[in-house]
Every structure is written in C-alpha cells, then in structure tokens.
C-alpha cells in the first residue's frame, strides 16, 4: 500500500505487504521489506533458513536514504529519517534519525 505524495526514486525495491504513508521520500536502491539473514542449526548441525515474518510499515513524512535496507517486521515512525546506507533491523521511533549497519539513533 502506497499512500499520497510519495516519491520513489529509481531502483527502490518495495516488497509485498509493505505499507508506505503520506509524504514519504524513498531514495535510489532502498530496499523495503527484505527477508532477514536468519539461519539456525538443525538436529544434524546443518544450517537452515529461518523464515522472517511481518511487514514493513512506514508512517507519514519519512525520509529513507539511498542504499538503505529495512527488514521485514519493522515500523518506521512518523517523521523519521533513515540515513543513506543504513540497515534497519528494529523499529524507529517517530522523529528519530538513524544511521549505520545496524542502524542506531543519531544524537
């Protein structure tokens, strides 16, 4: 679901069940709703893929920088800023700015 006045730049990838609020900007090569990198050993000691669940919810007035990735199950609060190149593994509070891999709040 993509709401009103959303700007999507070239190469942005939006996976199924992602919700994007009003007045958001998503820059080039951003990935929203990608599956995480979860593996767990089975009884034979072999690593098997652990399914990632949930959808991404982007609230209103959010800015997502280029080459950022937001994994499944994350909520990005109203007015948040995701700095370029960030890997977002956890929810981002309204008005919060995050950066890095993994993304952490910027003071």
Shape: globular
Distance between the termini: 31 Å
Radius of gyration, taken over Cα atoms and rounded to an integer in Å: 14 Å
Q: Summarize the main sheet.
A: 6 strands, mixed
- The secondary-structure class comes to mainly beta
Instruction: Tell me the number of helical segments per DSSP (H or I, 4 or more residues long).
Output: 0
Q: Strand-residue fraction?
A: 25-35%
Strand tally: 15
Helicity level: under 10%
**Overall mean pLDDT score?**
93
General description of the model:
By secondary structure, the chain is mostly beta strands. Helix content is 0%, strand content 34%. It has strands spanning 7-8, 13-14, 19-20, 25-26, 31-34, 39-41, 47-49, 57-58, 63-64, 69-71, 75-76, 81-82, 87-88, 97-99, 104-105. The protein starts with 6 loop residues before the first strand and ends with a strand. The mean pLDDT is 93.
List keywords for this structure.
single chain, 107 residues, mainly beta, 6-stranded mixed β-sheet, 4-stranded parallel β-sheet, 0% helix
Describe how the helices and strands are arranged.
Layout: E1 7-8, E2 13-14, E3 19-20, E4 25-26, E5 31-34, E6 39-41, E7 47-49, E8 57-58, E9 63-64, E10 69-71, E11 75-76, E12 81-82, E13 87-88, E14 97-99, E15 104-105
Parallel strand pairs: 1-4, 2-5, 3-8, 4-9, 5-10, 8-11, 9-12, 10-13, 12-14
Antiparallel strand pairs: 6-7, 14-15
In short:
This protein is mostly beta strands and 107 residues long.
